[in-house]
Design brief:
The protein is mostly helical and 80 residues long. It has one domain: Alpha-Beta Plaits (2-Layer Sandwich). Helix content is 40%, strand content 8%. It has three helices and two strands; from the N terminus they run H-H-E-E-H. The chain is elongated and about 60 Å long. The relative contact order is 0.21.
Length: 80
C-alpha cells in the first residue's frame, strides 16, 4: 500500500512539472522561411508579432498567448 501511495505522489509531481512545460508553448518564426507577407501580424489578436530589423516577422513571447492563429495562417509554414 505504501508503494502505491508513493507512486501516486510521484506521478502527481511529474504531472505538475510536465503540465507547466506543456502549457507554456512558445511559437517561433524561422526567418529563412518567412517571406515577410505580414499575414501573421494582421491575425495576431494580442499584437505580439512585428517586423524585426531584418524585415522578417518576430514574436514577442511576453505578449503571445499561444493561440496558434499565426501558425495556421502562415503560407510558408515558417511558424513553429
Amino acid at each position: 500500500m505504501k508503494k502505491i501511495i508513493l507512486l501516486v505522489i510521484l506521478f502527481g509531481i511529474l504531472i505538475y512539472i510536465g503540465c507547466d512545460k506543456v502549457s507554456n508553448l512558445e511559437y517561433n518564426i524561422d526567418s529563412s522561411a518567412c517571406n515577410s507577407c505580414g499575414e501573421c501580424i494582421q491575425i495576431c489578436p494580442v499584437d505580439a508579432i512585428e517586423f524585426g530589423s531584418d524585415g522578417k516577422a518576430v514574436i514577442d513571447q511576453t505578449k503571445c498567448n499561444q493561440c496558434g492563429k499565426c501558425v495556421t495562417i502562415c503560407p510558408k509554414d515558417a511558424i513553429h
